[in-house]
Amino acid sequence: MLIGKFKTNQPFLFAVLLLIAVFLWIDAFLTFNSVSLIEENAAPLYIWIAVFFNEYRFWSVLLSFIFMIIQAIMFNRVIAGRNLVDLNSQLPALFYIVLMSNNFSLMGLHPIWFANFFLIIALDKIFDVFSEEEVYVEIFNVGFLISLASLFYIPALWFILLLISALIIYYLVNIRSILASIIGFVTPYMFVALYYYWFDKLEERSAELLNFRSLLSDFSLSFTPLAWASIGVIGIIALVAIFRIYIGGLSDKPVRIRKRYHVLLAYFIIAAITVPFAGEMMHVHQGLLMLPLAAIMAGFFQESKKTFWNELFFTLLIFLIIVGKLTRLE
User: Fold this and answer.
1) Which terminal residue of the chain, N or C, has fewer Cβ atoms less than 10 Å from its own Cβ?
2) Alpha-carbon distance 168 to 191, whole Å?
3) Residues with Cβ < 8 Å from 330, sequence gap 6 or more?
4) DSSP 8-state secondary structure symbol assigned to residue 246
5) Distance between CA atoms of 199 and 267, rounded to whole angstroms?
């Protein structure tokens, strides 16, 4: 019944959403001492956060939980406000919370929460870029936001490919748009480079930033059987959603809606192919995948009229997440 309810905009749904979030995060609040943030080779703006909150782990969990709720609301406004689901639908927020609560590795003030914050804003601007009069200013802003995301989580650098993909999708590829993208992207790094140069750390930090080889060598896929089962269910739902939406499901949609869905697909593909570059942060990197996936799933379930199968798959996903959490608490 949850899927059907969240297709509407009833006043009590925010309270239900909050209860679901708290329920899915109980294990993190009970075992907050197990939450550790990776300090080694951390991004320039994240290193101090990791060092500080490794000493205050309860606050790390609480603030990441609050951050998730805020992002879910932002994300819902972006997806519903751009007509990818019904205007009153709360499905994007529901799926964002459920997917981001799937793995204990995402619980805590990890860099992915900061990266997703800026990427949600960037996605909103990409969706609306075609209707803006000052389109090149917005392209600059998107590049700037992606750059800020990477200053908290280095693999977010690859999302410059998302901006390039969006320019292609919106037929905005020209010298001015490319220059606006590059200038927006490099501007934050110019200030960071100046800071490190001033304190004679530029060479050291540059070497860490470009050390993709070591990131690849640290890549591994080590999950518990229950985690693999959960990934399998998410994968099946994702494949069905992508197939139904992109193979014929967009044919009756306005051009602007089709373009926005194509941006989401590009987002998902880029997030997927950059997984190996996450290295030891691979378990955290899945948070980048969950953002576009939540939007695609929300769009699929919004259009799907098969109530039984909708509720069955969603219930199975919740069940596997809960069993995984109970197993970890034993």
Assistant:
1) C
2) 29
3) none
4) I
5) 36
Q: Which class for 116: exposed (0-12), middle (13-18), buried (19 or more C-beta within 10 A)?
A: buried
pTM: 0.91
Predicted local confidence at residue 206, as pLDDT: 67
Whether the Cβ atoms of residue 274 and residue 162 lie closer than 8 Å to each other: no
Q: Which residues, other chains included, contact 197 with Cβ-Cβ below 8 Å and sequence gap of 6+?
A: none
CA atoms within 13 A on the CB side of 142: 29
Amino acid at 16: V
- Secondary structure tally for the chain: helices H, strands E: 16, 0
User: Using one digit for the tens of pLDDT, what is the confidence trace for 99-140?
Assistant: 999 888 889 899 999 999 999 999 999 988 755 567 888 899
* Alpha carbon distance 87, 8 (integer Å): 9
Longest dimension (CA), the chain: 62
- At 179, the pLDDT band (50, 70, 90 cuts) reads very high
User: Are 286 and 106 spatial neighbours (Cβ–Cβ below 8 Å)?
Assistant: yes
CA–CA dist 178, 160 (Å, integer): 11
Residues 309, 277 contacting (CB under 8 angstroms): no
Whether pLDDT at 219 is above 60: no
CA distance 267 to 182: 19
Residue 260: both structure tokens together: 């926005």
- State how far the Cα of 4 lies from the Cα of 260, in Å rounded to an integer: 24
Q: What is the DSSP string of 164-203?
A: HHHHHHTT--SHHHHHHHHHHHHHHHHHHHHHHHHTT-HH
CB of 146 closer than 8 Å to CB of 160: yes
User: Which backbone phi and psi does 327 adopt, to 5 degrees?
Assistant: -65, -40
At 11, the amino acid letter reads P
- Tokens read off for 13: 């749904």
Provide the 8-state DSSP code for 251. T
Residue 214's pLDDT is 46
Distance CA 147, CA 185 (A): 5
Q: Which two tokens stand for residue 25?
A: 């995060």
